[in-house]
Every structure is written in structure tokens, then in C-alpha cells.
Design a protein that fits this description.
With about 325 residues, this protein is α/β, with parallel strands linked by helices. Helices cover about 45% and strands about 10% of the residues. The protein has two domains: about 60 residues, Transferase, Pyrimidine Nucleoside Phosphorylase, Chain A, domain 3 (Up-down Bundle); about 240 residues, Nucleoside phosphorylase/phosphoribosyltransferase catalytic domain (Pyrimidine Nucleoside Phosphorylase, Chain A, domain 2, 3-Layer(aba) Sandwich), CATH 3.40.1030. Strand 1, helix 7 and strand 2 form a beta-alpha-beta unit. Helix 3 crosses helix 5, helix 5 packs across helix 13 and helix 7 crosses helix 15. The radius of gyration is 20 Å and the shape is globular. The mean pLDDT is about 95.
Amino acid sequence: MSQVRTPFSEYIRHIGRGKKAGKYLTQEQAFDAMTQAINGKISDEQLGAFLMLLRVREESEAELAGFLQAVRESTLTEVKALKSISLDIGCYAGKRRQLPWFLLAVLALADSGQKIFLHGTQEPQSQRLYLDQIFKQLNLPTSRNIFQANESLTENGFCYMELGDINPKLKQLIDLRELFGLRTCANTLARMLNPTHATYSLHGVYHKEFDERHIQVANLVNDTNVACFRGEGGEVEVKADRNFTLHLNDCKGVAHTLAFPQLYSGRQHKADMADISQLKSVWQNIQQDEYATSAITGTLAVMLSLTKTLNCGDALISAKTLWNNRNINRYFNEVY
């Protein structure tokens, strides 16, 4: 993208002049603004004003596309060099009502032979449960560099890296929540990052219309094979007690949707978030949990809809088969 050379104060004035006079940035302007921001070319005061104005007004699809192109340029070169990854999943919402059952869907998919790259981070002052905590407590491997990532992908079919080890500049933007008390667009950009250029990318969001927005942004940056849905707590996990729509951007860049039915008819109860061992027990078939199983197979179906181009019915059948055929002795008995 060609560089627009504009003083940053002009961008603040552009978006901050009120409902009638304020304007949206073009994709090119947004690229330049975010490039200046993440490369330390502006003051802290300018950065704070810019991000909070965007927070109040909300970013347009073109602005998000330009921001995404800018932050992708700051992804560490060695991470971009990771190859042969099938599915990219950004996990940035954290969980507070249900345990991250989607992790078991990831493990089942990895057990079937697909290579999955997970990335995420913890937010300052958040009371949510994040993947890094889960991995440490369950003795699952995390990767701090490309060598560990490649080793985990080879041995386990998946790897997890913290955003700070992938894109430190984007991590710094997310950490500003401690200063502002509010999230910024950095959380959205991290979900869309796909730092290894994996063949497929799956996003989970919380708010209405954000699923459609992710697909529109994907089109603007020429990303294909992207899917997004409103997941439990904003993560890539099916809310099994509700029907939902999966928004996709296929291999040709054509947007379409898949309608999924409600998968669990019982009442959803808040999980015991302190008992992370339930994840291991459900994987090893020691504990039976109908809601968890529905969430896992539903999430697996979403992943298969994307990576295998299956319709809803076929994806659900394949997901249940995959889950039932998982190797229950793999992963949690390993010593890393």
C-alpha cells in the first residue's frame, strides 16, 4: 500500500469533529495512521485521543482494513515463516461463564491431522480465564519462539503463542486497556491477524453485526477462507443452547452464510471456572457433560464447515464422528 504522508493531528481532527463534521478515514489513511501509531511516531496523548475517539464512534470496515494491514507489517518475521498451518484461531476474549470447551474441539481437530495455530493474550485487570492460564494448569505446551512452535505442531498438531511473542507492538496497544479502562480496536485486529498466513482463519466475536464486519474487512484486504460467528463470551466457541449464523468468505472471496440449529435443549448453567480439570475429564471420557459435548461438537462442526467446505448437516455429522473417535489418551498424559 502506498504511504500517505499526513500529520497525525490531521487524522485526529478528521475523526473528532463531531457527528456532522467528523469523517471516516479511507483505508489508505487508516494504514498510515496506524503505521505511525505502532512505530512510535506520535505522542502518547495523540495515541490516546485517537483510540478513544474511535472507540466512541466505532471503526468503519475500511478503517479496520487499513489498521489490519499496518499491524500485520509489524508481525515478527520468524513467525510469518511458519508454514503448512491449516487453521488460525485468535483467542482474545477470555471466558467467564463457561470453560473454554473450544480447546477440546481444537485438540480433536489436531488429533485428526490438521495443523492449528492458536494465539492470544491476557488483558490487564480482566477477571476472565485465558488460554495461557489453561495451558499452564493442564500442562499443555506453549511456544515462545518459532522452534518451539514447529516442534509442537509436529508432535501435537497445534501450538499456542502469546501475542507478545508474535507482534509486540499490537500487544502494547491491547495493554493500553489498563490505562484507558476500555478496550480498543486492537482486540479486533488481533483476532483478524492470522500471523502465519494459515490457509483458513476462524474468528469469534461477541457483539451483533461484528461477524459480518469481519467478513467485510477480509474482503477489503483480500483474505479468503475466513469464517466468523458470535461465540460464547466472544470466543470461537458455539453457544450450544442457541441457533447461530456462521459468516464465511470462501476461497474465491465470495461471502455467504450457514445457519446452524440449537444443539442443546437443556438449561445452561454457569461452569465452575475454578475447576479447570473438567476439561481433561471430559476429553478422557471420565466426566459426561451434555452441554460441553454439544458445544465441542458444534465448534468442531464450524471448523469443518470452514476447512472442509461442508454444509451444516454434514459438518455436524463429521464433528460427532471426529469427537467420538478422538484418542482420549493423547495430550493430557504427556510431559512437556
